[in-house]
Structures are given as structure tokens and as C-alpha cells.
């Protein structure tokens, strides 16, 4: 990456182009004196600086900030095909989607979120992205200013003129955020800017825990402390002296021209660090220091020195939380996948950097949030190593992880199909116990099954064809047979056929009834038990046309029995 050449001088000669710009940096994060765990995370390298302040308390603020920071560390480079600012914004939106996926995987994390304040140095420009109430300050040409705008309720009141800035610090809702990454908004609004950059300018990125130090004290410290490491340490110490009721994270960086020494130390070896809770490096030249557990050690939690009050002993993070009557809320190992030390080292050792806070704890223990861990492993295999062997290993790992779920799905589907098949078979078996009377080749026939069809499948078979011709039956009996007459079993079907043969009806003789004498309507003929149809000849047992006669009192068999 090269910035534009200097303009021609008075002599008409063009000087050599400026060397590429990089960040020199220092970072520190502290849990504070009140909180049981650190929800802040930060990363800073030669081209990327990001601070994330997680929220949600026991719901997983540390998970949110760690997942977001670990998902963004691959941006620490200066070669971008397109607009680096767009890439930065897209990556933050992607991190927001990852947090939503984490909440979907574990509903107990619902409500977690994180702020993000990031700087990306690329193509001679400084790309800025911000959401939440973490802050970015710049010291340039002697002017110290806050570049970020807090996305808080009180800041909105200040912008609307309803609250004075000095009243904001004591407002009861000063910590209420209006915008944040998390599972509340699928596409949160970011503050974005592309800024000109000059060698020598300084930036301070910090979580809102630093707000407990007076603004003029912060400014004086940044102005008067030349060494970046000392400046970061002093700002955190001042916060602790002020009571530090919240986590505090500070990233100090200075824009500088790259030197030959920087090129030689672009990739460094990893050595153990003294403190497992904070990953440290020198402000510019020294090798990157990662926790000792990253270098081949088992991913087990380490005891961390407590700094939240006198008498605090070295206890594991879980025990520390328990002492304050709070549940263990460090990065949940059930949400994460233990990455190998080699993969993590390949990703982080490609350039000098510092990783602090919850992200450093997650990297140390190997308890990387699942989504960020999966992304990290994929990028480490495809971007850093460029080895087809590792790509195949990753594919094999994915295949090894997927079969249980695939076989479970197949097993459930097979069980459903088996149940459906069993149900269909039982239903079909039941139909084969039934019989009905119907028509076959103009004769009365007995069928086994039911008269319905199941798609192309006929649910009945011909049992026998009788000698009874359809034309020999009364009209109403013909209609009845064509509509099919159900029978309980074969014997019942044979009984109905016998009745048709003897009486022309489906009802047996002993089921006939004797209606009371009723005058018949002239010119009509009545069917047994049915409404008289004009002009029709009465069938067997029917009433005759005309005035009442003795035949009208003869037994009339009911139809349809």
C-alpha cells in the first residue's frame, strides 16, 4: 500500500513517495473493582483497531464482544480489492448476524449485545465505524477531539437541546443505549466515515468504563505521555483509582510510516505471557505475546489475579463470580468449539497485534464462540496457510460433524414413512374385511372391500357375479345397487342378494312394515316406503294407483335397510 506522492517542490523535482502507513499501538483491559467478569474485548494491530463493550450481564456480554472481535481480526491488512470502508461496515453487519445466530442456538443469550468502535487503516485512509457508546478520540496537530458520537438516550437529549452536557453524567438513564449490535436489529445503523490521516496523529479507543475519569484528565494524559504503553496503563490506573465500577478497556495507537524493521517483524513467534487474562505486546517493535495456554496447552481455565478490591485472591473466573453471588458467566464452553493451538497461532501470528479482554480469555481457553470459531478456523485454513491439506482437513472435520445430524434426520424421516406405511396397510387391511353389493356386466355382484379408490388404487375386488340381472329389478332397486349397498361381511352380502332375488329389494321379508291405510293420489304409483312417482309402475309390494283398496294395507317393505 502506498499513499499518493508528495507534490512537486519549487525545484520541479518530485520526492520519493511516502512509505506505507501503519499503526503503532498499546492496549489494556481491566475487569474493574466491582464487576465479576470482563465483558470488554479489544484487538489492535498494524492496520486494525477495534473495541467492543459487551452487555447483557449474565446473558452473555462477554460472548457478544469476544465473538465480534474475533470475527473481525482478519481485517488487519492493507490490501483490499474494493472500498475498505465498505468491507469494514459489511463485516460489522456480519458480526451482528452471527450474534443473532448465537442467540438462536442458545436462547439463554437473548438480549446480549455489544458496542463496536473500529478503525481500519488502508490505502492511505483511515476508515471509521461506530455503534454504541464506546468512544474514539483523536489528537492531531495539537487538537484533541471526540470523533465518535454516543448512541445513548442522554446524548439524544443533548442533541435536542433538552439536556446540558454537564447534566448527562448524573442522569439516571445515562447508560441506556439507542443503537447496538445484537439480536434486536437485523441491520443496525452504523456511523461510518473515511478520514484523511497524517503520520504522528494519535487515537484513543476506549469502552465507557473510562468515562469515570474526567475528560480534561484523559486529554492531558494523552497529550503528555509520549510512550503509548505508559499512556494506556496510566489511563486504566486512573480509572481504578476512581472506583472503576465498570470494565475498562483502552487502546492507544499512533499513525506512523512503516520502516524496514516493521517489515522484518511482520510475522513473529509466539511466546508465553505473564498474565493469562491479557494478551500483550510492545507498542511497536516487540514480538506478539499470547497466553501460554495457546501454545499447545490444554484449553482449561487458568486462575486470574483479581483486581476488584483489597483481599481479592487468585481464583478462577467461575469462583470469582460465585463469591459475588452471581452465576458463572464467562464465555460459555458449551457455545464454543475448542480450536487447536496451531490454527489459532496461524491466524494471530501472521502479524504483530494485541488481543485483550474477553476475546483474549476466549482465545486462551479455546472456548471460542461457535460462530466466530468456525469463521476463524475457515479463514486460518484458506487465507493464512493456503495449504490444500488444511482445506481438506477442514472439509473432513465438517463432514465428521455433520453425519450425526444427517443420520438423525434420515432416521426421523424413515420413522415417519414407516408409520405412514403402517397406517396405510392397516387401513387397507380393514377395507378387505368389508363387502358391498354392486353392478358387474349388467348383473348384481358381490365385491370384497369398499367402493372408493385411493388414487389409481381400487380398494375392492370382485368376489362373485350372481344370476340376477339388473333389468329384472325395480327401478329404485337398480339405482340402489348402482350406488352400492354396503354389507358387514360376506354372509350379510349373500343375505342382501337373496332378498333382491326373492323380493326385489335389499331388505329381508321380516323387516317389512305395515303402513296405515292412506288414500293414494290419483294418477300416481307409490313405491314401498318412498314417495309416489307419477306414471311409474309399482314394484313388488308397492301400493296401487287409485282409490284406497285392500292392497293399500298390504305389507310394504322399506327400502334402504
Mean pLDDT rating? 73
Level-1 CATH class name of the largest domain? Alpha Beta
Radius of gyration: 43 Å
Distance between the termini: 97 Å
Pairing-aware structural class of the strands and helices? alpha+beta
Oligomer: single chain
DSSP strand tally? 21
Which consecutive residue ranges, at least 5 long each, have pLDDT under 50?
Answer: 1-17, 267-341, 380-391, 509-561
**Biggest pleated-sheet summary:** 8 strands, antiparallel
Helix share, percent: 25-40%
The name CATH uses for the topology of the largest domain is Phosphatase 2c, domain 1
* Domain module count: 3
Q: In one word, what is the shape?
A: rod-shaped
User: How many alpha or pi helices?
Assistant: 15
Strand content: 15-25%
CATH H-level homologous superfamily name of the largest domain: PPM-type phosphatase domain
CATH architecture verdict of the largest domain: 4-Layer Sandwich
